[in-house]
């Protein structure tokens, strides 16, 4: 079973039920670009509206989402390469996944 979202393991009881938890840590510039693309296309927002919305939610992100990183079994990071975005598993250096964006 796969749980995904902003708060998948915020609850301690939910965390206790998982065999493996993977966190995808996307750099802020990439998150911002993805949100702008989505919100402009799907919601009709301007880039400034997206920026304001992100800034408005930063305290909640810092309080509820970001602390979950410490609870995951494996951390993942996105980095840019000449061939596109690469998903790298910390501690699993031999496992890399190429992702098209």
TrEMBL record:
Give the UniProt keywords, A-Z.
ATP-binding, Kinase, Nucleotide-binding, Transferase
Q: Which domain of life is it from?
A: Eukaryota
Record's catalysed reaction(s) = D-ribulose 5-phosphate + ATP = D-ribulose 1,5-bisphosphate + ADP + H(+)
Question: What is the protein's given name?
Answer: Phosphoribulokinase
This chain's source organism reads: Symbiodinium pilosum
Q: What Pfam families does UniProt report for this protein, alphabetically?
A: PRK
Q: Tell me where in this chain the Phosphoribulokinase/uridine kinase domain is found.
A: 1-69
Q: Is Hydrolase among the key words of this record?
A: no
Family per record: Belongs to the phosphoribulokinase family.
SUPFAM superfamilies per record: P-loop containing nucleoside triphosphate hydrolases (SSF52540)
The opening ranks of the lineage are:
Eukaryota, Sar, Alveolata, Dinophyceae, Suessiales
**Entry's EC annotation:** 2.7.1.19
Q: Name one GO biological process term.
A: reductive pentose-phosphate cycle
InterPro entries named among the record's database cross-references: P-loop_NTPase, PRK, PRK/URK
Keyword Transferase set for record: yes
The Gene Ontology terms for molecular function here are: ATP binding; phosphoribulokinase activity
């Amino acid at each position: 079973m796969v749980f995904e979202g902003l708060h998948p393991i915020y609850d301690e009881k939910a965390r206790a039920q998982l065999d493996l938890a993977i966190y995808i840590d996307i750099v802020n510039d990439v998150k911002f670009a993805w949100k702008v693309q989505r919100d402009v296309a799907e919601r009709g927002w301007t880039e400034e509206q997206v920026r304001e919305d992100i800034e408005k939610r930063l305290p909640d992100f810092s309080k509820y989402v970001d602390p979950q990183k410490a609870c995951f079994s494996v951390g993942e990071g996105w980095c840019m390469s000449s061939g596109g975005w690469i998903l790298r598993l910390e501690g699993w250096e031999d496992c890399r996944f190429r992702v098209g964006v």
